[in-house]
Amino acid sequence: MTRKSRRLAVTVTNAVAGGDQIAVEYACELERRDGAVERAHGCNVFTIRRGRIHRLRSYYVPDAPAGGQA
Predict the structure, then answer these.
(1) What predicted TM-score, i.e. pTM, was given to this entire model?
(2) The domain that contains 52 carries what CATH number?
(3) Most buried of 48, 58, 59, 60, CB within 10 angstroms?
């Protein structure tokens, strides 16, 4: 969370594991201090080596604001 936010909620929507990789899809919602809400979704792909995270790739897509303006 940042100083400009009041609340952050993250929900895991899907997780898949295979071999040395794990993919986790998520949706998040951030409530800013001014009351505006920002939503986004994304996917993190973890590569595990020797029981530790070796690599993390993140894909993040902000949802369009209310009214459909991108």
Answers:
(1) 0.74
(2) 3.10.450.50
(3) 48
